[in-house]
Every structure is written in C-alpha cells, then in structure tokens.
Protein: Elongation factor 1-beta
Amino acid sequence: MGSVAVIMRVMPESPEVNLDELKKALKEKLPGIQDVKEEPIGFGLKAIKFAAIVNDAGGETDMLEKTIGAIPGVERAEIIEVTLT
Structure:
C-alpha cells in the first residue's frame, strides 16, 4: 500500500472566522499537513488550502473530510486533487 498527496480547500463559515485560529486547529487535528495557504474566494471570504499525505487505502480521504468538517468554524472541506507521492 502506498501514499497519496491530497490537496484540500477548507471553507470557513463566514468572513468573520479567524483564519489564524482555524489554521492552528487544523494543525492540531492533522499534524502532518503541509503548505498551508490562504486563498481569496471573493467578497472578503478566504479559504485555507493545504496538502496532506494519507494512505491510499479506501476511506482515508472520507475520514480526512469528516475530521476537518468537525472543526468549529468550518463550513465544508473539499478535495481539490489527489496524486501519487
């Protein structure tokens, strides 16, 4: 079994969500995330985009989305890209 790199976008609930605190919470829940960046969406809303390395076993990406979705201030988490490492 190998690993895959997952590029994800995390949408906050509103522009008022503190992105620094949200990034800190993401790093606490997912200590292996890398390349965390803010991405402007529009109307003052910014998303957080990052990469994570996970096993390519079935269900790993679903668990990643569920873990992120449970963090306060997160509207949704979506996978942008999955690639072999």
Q: What stands out?
A: Strands lie at 3-12, 34-42, 45-55, 74-84. The chain has one domain: 3-84. The first helix runs from residue 19 to 29. The mean pLDDT is 91.
